[in-house]
Amino acid sequence: MQIVTPSIAQSRLTPELLSRLAEIVGESGLVRDPDDLEPYLREQRGNFKGRSPLCVLPASTQQVAAVVKTLAEAEVPMVPQGGNTGLCGGAVAGLGGEEVIINLKRMNRVLSVDHDNFTLTVEAGCILSDVQATAMAADRLFPLSLAAEGSCQIGGNLATNAGGTQVLRYGNARELVLGLEVVLPDGRVLDMLRGLRKDNTGYDLRHLFCGAEGTLGIITAAVLKLFPRPREQVTAMLALPNLQAAIAVLSRARAETGDAITGCEFISRTALDMVLRHIPGTREPLSQRSLHYLLLEATSTAIPRDGEAHSSSAEQLRHTCEQLFAECSDAGLIEDAVIAQSPAQRSEFWRIRESIPEAQKPEGVSLKHDVAVPVPRVAEFVQRASERVQAAVPGLRVCAFGHIGDGNIHFNLSQPSEGSGAAFLAERERIAAIVHDLAVDLQGSFSAEHGIGSLKRSELRRYRSEVELSVMRSIKAALDPKGLMNPGKVL
């Protein structure tokens, strides 16, 4: 028997409306039991927990459109949800208890693969790792890659304009989509599923929905860009004398490899030590300890011709990297370096980088900041921000790491070893202001890839101009005049 809370009983979600929704998606497409609802209500880091009377699981675009139209006519607010792996509360219902969650996990079909056009058309509920595997099976690459790829959905990736580890070469999610299908807040379907690379016919609406975090409509399908499959990867772990050296190494690497660098990740000594302490099976990557590390990866997509095994582009790429590292060492930019000699060693290097967030958890409370600055100013940001936050809270530990190749640093701060977690958590807003003020002063962003959601709405008001905010509000009002689509997020 369903337990009905007072807020739900008083909501607009009447028995008649529930019956209509069941007709659209089937009884199995409605999640009403409180225990079954629980996974749809909580953000993965535990910072946000919402309330909702219902989660709807449509199985097609037509069902999404019918559900949205039905809820809109009854003026019931809606929360679009993918894999619910976001970090800013953008897919979590509010506390009022009247918002209906629309989760697209049943819409997980691959609609088509166009080998010659290098495109893949999928429904929004496809898991990112499945999209990657489908592309690989077609001898192609879909380059979006992030820690949650085994559970996040491509619709959510696009709605949040996800970043990841290969933005340097391939761009954010927004740059990996050619066409979209979107259900608008009134239930109309905006069909833009076109695999065109050149279409100069008015406003580019697809980019309007990428990064809108479900506030303007629900992405139901997408035409994705594919790329040649990598044939060889050269992956190296470098020890550096300082962070500024990483910028110089990256600049040389991009120029000398013909812009073949696909990954460039900074790892601080503090971050590495946490991984070695808490992640079983990890080990020191180099023979000597350093305060700064760079995980650098270059990729060749060329296929060696018969009889060219000893002069293939893959071997040329490795030789170029070896020569580059030697020259950088002579210039004092690299203290030590090792190139992965096997796929297993490459995986070891990447496991260190990808395990940092998990390794922070046993260290106590962590205040996380997802910022970006122009690449040449990364070292300046990390140094100045570290000085300022350590002055504000003596003893806190700076765990900085991230996608230095595109200027995105995850500037995470762990509580002082001897301090109180609750006391450190109480400093969240003060510390965030210090970090974000500096990032913006350096012509950067306070949110590089995690978006706004519920968490950073006040920062958006603080750092974006009134003209920008006014334009955003005008767009929201034009598409969602009743404010029913993901209310309380972004704006």
Task: Note down, in words, how this protein is organized.
- The protein folds into four domains: 6-103, Uridine Diphospho-n-acetylenolpyruvylglucosamine Reductase, domain 2 (2-Layer Sandwich); 110-228, 2-Layer Sandwich (Uridine Diphospho-n-acetylenolpyruvylglucosamine Reductase, domain 3); 232-355, Alpha-Beta Plaits, CATH 3.30.70.2190; 364-451, Alpha-Beta Plaits (2-Layer Sandwich), CATH 3.30.70.
- The chain contains 18 helices and 19 strands.
- By secondary structure, the protein is of the alpha+beta class.
- It has helices at residues 6-9, 15-25, 34-41, 61-73, 128-137, 154-159, 167-170, 206-209, 243-256, 269-278, 313-330, 343-354, 356-360, 378-392, 421-425, 428-441, 457-463, 466-479, and strands at residues 30-31, 55-56, 78-81, 100-103, 110-114, 119-123, 140-141, 177-183, 189-192, 218-225, 227-228, 232-240, 261-268, 292-300, 336-339, 366-367, 370-372, 397-402, 408-414.
- 46% of the residues are buried.
- Mean pLDDT is 94; it is low at 1-10.
- The strands form four sheets. Strands 12, 13, 14, 15, 16, 17, 18 and 19 form an eight-stranded antiparallel β-sheet that branches.
- The longest helix is centred in the middle third of the chain and has 18 residues, at 313-330.
- The radius of gyration is 24 Å and the shape is globular.
